[in-house]
Write a structure and sequence with these properties.
heterodimer, A: alpha/beta, 7-stranded parallel sheet, 40% helix, globular, B: alpha/beta, two-stranded parallel ribbon, 45% helix
C-alpha cells in the first residue's frame, strides 16, 4: 500500500544520505557551458541540501557547500514540511515549527553561500551575491490542520509556497496516487482563498487531476505545478495533462519539469527526455509558463557501488508501492544521469541553446518564469 | 399494500400534531408486542453520558425516560466529530465510567448477547461508535485499540471530508481514499461495523462495495423521496442490502423538502426502503435524544436559532424555512417513540414479525454477524 514508504524528499535526503561519507565530492562544474548563465536567475522548483537536516560534522556538509557555490542557482524551493506519516495533530504542527527554526539556523550558519528568500528581490540579491536562495515551502497542506489561520502564521515564519497535497489524500484534496479522483474539499477552497489573500503561492504538484483542475480554477493568483511532467508524453498520474497545463498557463502560472523517472514509462529518462517535456510544454502553453523542478539534491549524486546497490533496493520498494510500474527496470534514478552535476541548469541551458532555443527563452525556463510568479504573488 | 384510507387517517392525525403529542406522551397508542422485541436506535443521545454538571432532577428524568423508551440498545456517538486520538480515548473512558455509574439503567454492549441481556434486564445497552474516522487518523492499529476499549461501530465520515472519504456536504463527492480502503479492510478484520451514514454519495457506494461484512447506514433516509445529498439513493440502498446491512431511517428534517416531517414521513421512508431493499434491511436511527423534548419557550427560541444556522448552511436544501423545524418528529416525541411508531406501522397492515425486524431485529442480526 502506498504510504507505507514515504517519498517526500526521498531523492534529496535518501540519495544524499547514501552518498554521505562514501567518497569525496568530485563532480563540480561540467561543460558544455552556456555563456549567459552567470547573469541568469536560475530557480529549481524543488531541490534541497541535506546539510540543513544533518549534524554539522557530517562529511556531506562540506561537499554540499562546494556544490552550493558551483550550482549557479539563485533560488531553490525547499520542502520544510510535512515529512513522512503526518497527521494533523498538535505534535505535528509543533514539529513543523521546529523544522523551520532548524532550517533558519542552518542557513544563518552558512550565510556566505545560503540565504532565505522572503521577497522576490531577495532572489535578485542572491544572484548578485552568488548565494543560493532557499524558498520555504510545504509539500502538502497537512501542517495547517483544519485551521486556515495558520497560513499567515506560517507566512510570518517564512513559508512562501504551499503545495496542496502530496501523493495521498489530505483534508484539502487528493494526491495523484489516490484512486478516487477527489477534487478540492470545502476546506480546500477555503485554503486556496486564504493563500491568495496572504500572498502565498499555491502549488498543485503531486495532485490528482481533479484536484489540480479545481485548484487552478479556484486560485486568483498564478499557481505553480512546481515539479511534474507532461502527461501527453508520459501517461502517468504524477504528470499533468495538456488541459491542466493550459489552464495553469491561463492563470499566469508555471509548470516545472521534474528529473524523476516519471518522464518516461519505460527506461531511465535522460536529458533528451527533459528537453522533450520542456518543448512539449512550450508548445502547449508557451515559453512563459515552463520551468524546471528537479526534485533532487542540488549536489550531484556520487554513483558509488554502494549507492547503486541501495538505489536498486529503493526502486524495487517504489515499484512494490506502485510509485513506478513493475515492468520498469531496477536501474532507475531520481535524477537525470547525464545532468548529474552541480551546474546541471547550465548544462541543460547549453543543450537547449544547441537546439536553437533563444537565450531569452532559456533564461525564462531556467528561472525567469518562476521569478515572475513570485514577484506577482508575494508583492 | 397500504390502504388509502389508513394513509388519510394518519395524515389527518399529523395535521393535529400538538393534540396528538399530548396523547403520545402518555404512551398511547401502544403496540402489544413491544416489550418482547429488541428495539435498537441507530443513533441517539443521552445528556447524562455526555454533559457535565447536570442536576439530580435532570439525571433522574433522563434515566426514567431511558427506561420508558423500551429500547434495548442505542448506538451512541462516544466523542465529537473531528476528535483526535487522545480526545477520543478520554471521551470514551469517561462515557464508560458514566455507564458504570448508572449500572442499574445502562450496560456497555460488547456482544450480541449483551443486547439480549439488556433486553431481559430492562436496561439500555450502549453501543459505542464514532461519527467520522478521525480518531483513527492514519494509524490503523488504533482500530484494535478502540475495539478493545469497547468501540463497536465506525462511521467513516461525518459531514466533511476526512482522510478516508467525503461527507455529504462536500462539493467534490470524493470516494474512498487508499487509506479509506485500508480502513474498511481493517474494520472488517477487527469485527467492527462499517457505517456509511453522513457519507457523500460516492463514499457511501465505495464503502459498501469495499466491505466484506454487512454495512449499515445508521441514520439516513431515502433520496428517492427527498432529494438531498445526506440521504441514500435506491442503488445505494440495494447495494447496502446486498451486503446484508441495514439503513436506519432518521427523524430529522431531511425526510422532506418542505416543512416539518411527521410520523407519516418516517413511515413513507420506511416503506420505500422496504420496497427497494426488503424488510430485512430497514431499521430506525432517530439521531435525537432518548428523552422527549420539553418544549418550553426557551427551548423553542434556542431551537429556532440552531435551525436557522443549520438551514443557512444548506443542510436541508435550498429555500427551506427554519421556522417550525425540529430535530425530532413532533408526533413521535415521547420516550416510547418506537412503540408509537410500531403501532402506526401495525395500523397500516405491516406484520408483527416485520415490525420487530424494523424496530431492532435487523440491526441485531448485523451486529451478531459482524461482532462474531
Amino acid at each position: 500500500m502506498p504510504g507505507r514508504r514515504e517519498f517526500i524528499k526521498i531523492s534529496t535526503l535518501a540519495a544524499a544520505a547514501i552518498a554521505s561519507g562514501t567518497l569525496g565530492h568530485v563532480s563540480a562544474r561540467a561543460s558544455p557551458r552556456w555563456k549567459p548563465y552567470r547573469n541568469t536567475i536560475a530557480i529549481d522548483g524543488e531541490g534541497g541540501f541535506s546539510l540543513l537536516f544533518v549534524g554539522d560534522d557530517d562529511p556531506i556538509v562540506r561537499k554540499e557547500l562546494v556544490a552550493a557555490r558551483e550550482c549557479g542557482l539563485s533560488g531553490v524551493l525547499l520542502t520544510v514540511a510535512p515529512e513522512g506519516r503526518f497527521w494533523m495533530n498538535d505534535a505535528a504542527f509543533e514539529r513543523t515549527k521546529e523544522k523551520i527554526a532548524t532550517c533558519k539556523a542552518k542557513i544563518a550558519r552558512h550565510s556566505d553561500v545560503l540565504v532565505q528568500i522572503l521577497r522576490a528581490d531577495d532572489l535578485e540579491a542572491a544572484d548578485r551575491d552568488r548565494r543560493v536562495g532557499l524558498v520555504f515551502r510545504f509539500q502538502g497542506a497537512e501542517p495547517l490542520g483544519e485551521d486556515s489561520d495558520r497560513i499567515p502564521m506560517f507566512r510570518d515564519l517564512g513559508v512562501r509556497v504551499i503545495q496542496l497535497t502530496h501523493n495521498r489524500r489530505n483534508l484539502v484534496g487528493d494526491g495523484c496516487t489516490e484512486p478516487s479522483q477527489a477534487g478540492l474539499s470545502r476546506f480546500g477552497y477555503e485554503v486556496v482563498e486564504r493563500l491568495n489573500a496572504e500572498k502565498v503561492v499555491v502549488d498543485l504538484a503531486h495532485g490528482a487531476p481533479q484536484t489540480i483542475a479545481d485548484g487552478i480554477r479556484a486560485t486568483k493568483a498564478p499557481p505553480l505545478i512546481s515539479h511534474t511532467g507532461a502527461r501527453a508524453l508520459s501517461d502517468l498520474p504524477r504528470c499533468t495533462s495538456d488541459e491542466n497545463l493550459r489552464a495553469c498557463a491561463e492563470k499566469g502560472g508555471v509548470a516545472g519539469v521534474i528529473f524523476w523517472p516519471y518522464l518516461r514509462t519505460d527506461t531511465q529518462p535522460m536529458a533528451i527526455d527533459v528537453i522533450r517535456h520542456i518543448e512539449h510544454m512550450i508548445d502547449v502553453c508557451g515559453e512563459d509558463h515552463v520551468g524546471i523542478g528537479t526534485d533532487g539534491s542540488v549536489m550531484a549524486v556520487e554513483r558509488t557501488p554502494e549507492f547503486e546497490k541501495q538505489n536498486r533496493e529503493w526502486v524495487r520498494g517504489a515499484k512494490e508501492d506502485g510509485i513506478f510500474d513493475k515492468s520498469r527496470p531496477d536501474e532507475l534514478y531520481t535524477f537525470i544521469p547525464d545532468l548529474d552535476m552541480d551546474n546541471r541548469f547550465e548544462v541543460l541551458a547549453a543543450m537547449l541553446s544547441a537546439r536553437k532555443h533563444s537565450d531569452a527563452r532559456i533564461a525564462k525556463i531556467l528561472g525567469g518564469n518562476f521569478l515572475r510568479v513570485f514577484t506577482e504573488v508575494w508583492t | 399494500m397500504i390502504a388509502r384510507r389508513g394513509f388519510l387517517q394518519l395524515a389527518a392525525i399529523s395535521a393535529f400534531a400538538p393534540a396528538f403529542r399530548a396523547q403520545a406522551a402518555q404512551g398511547a397508542p401502544v403496540w402489544r408486542g413491544y416489550r418482547d422485541v429488541i428495539a435498537i436506535d441507530g443513533e441517539s443521545g443521552l445528556d447524562v453520558l455526555r454533559e457535565d454538571g447536570l442536576d439530580e432532577k435532570a439525571v433522574a428524568r433522563e434515566l426514567a425516560e431511558a427506561r420508558a423508551s423500551g429500547l434495548s440498545a442505542t448506538l451512541f456517538q462516544v466523542t465529537n466529530v473531528h476528535s483526535d486520538f487522545d480526545q477520543a480515548i478520554s471521551d470514551l473512558m469517561r462515557v464508560r465510567a458514566r455507564i458504570d455509574a448508572h449500572e442499574e439503567a445502562f450496560l456497555l454492549v460488547r456482544t450480541k448477547a449483551d443486547v439480549e441481556r439488556a433486553h431481559r434486564e430492562r436496561k439500555l445497552g450502549l453501543i459505542l461508535r464514532f461519527q467520522g474516522a478521525e480518531p483513527i487518523g492514519d494509524e490503523l492499529d488504533r482500530v484494535d485499540v478502540f475495539r478493545e476499549l469497547g468501540l463497536r461501530v465506525v462511521e467513516l465520515t461525518h459531514n466533511r471530508r476526512n482522510l478516508v472519504g467525503d461527507g455529504s456536504t462536500e462539493p467534490g463527492n470524493a470516494g474512498l481514499s487508499v487509506l479509506g480502503h485500508a480502513l474498511v479492510e481493517r474494520l472488517n478484520a477487527g469485527k467492527v461495523v462499517v457505517d456509511v451514514a453522513h457519507g457523500s454519495q460516492r463514499t457511501m457506494k465505495e464503502g459498501i462495495e469495499a466491505s466484506k461484512a454487512p454495512v449499515i447506514i445508521s441514520h439516513s433516509g431515502c433520496r428517492a423521496l427527498s432529494d438531498l445529498p445526506r440521504l441514500a439513493d435506491d442503488d445505494t440502498l440495494r447495494a447496502m442490502a446486498k451486503t446484508g446491512g441495514v439503513i436506519g431511517i432518521m427523524f430529522w428534517p431531511y425526510l422532506v423538502r418542505e416543512g416539518q416531517p411527521m410520523a407519516i414521513d418516517v413511515i413513507r421512508h420506511i416503506e420505500h426502503a422496504i420496497d427497494v431493499c426488503g424488510e430485512d434491511h430497514v431499521g430506525i436511527g432517530t439521531d435525537g435524544g432518548i428523552a422527549s423534548t420539553e418544549r418550553t419557550p426557551e427551548f423553542e427560541k434556542q431551537n429556532l436559532a440552531l435551525m436557522k444556522d443549520t438551514v443557512a448552511q444548506g443542510y436541508f436544501g435550498e429555500g427551506r424555512r427554519a421556522e417550525g423545524l425540529y430535530f425530532f418528529i413532533p408526533d413521535l416525541d415521547a420516550p416510547n417513540r418506537f412503540e408509537l411508531l410500531a403501532a402506526k406501522l401495525s395500523a397500516r397492515g405491516h406484520s408483527d414479525a416485520r415490525i420487530a425486524k424494523i424496530l431492532g431485529g435487523n440491526f441485531l442480526r448485523v451486529f451478531g454477524e459482524v461482532w462474531g
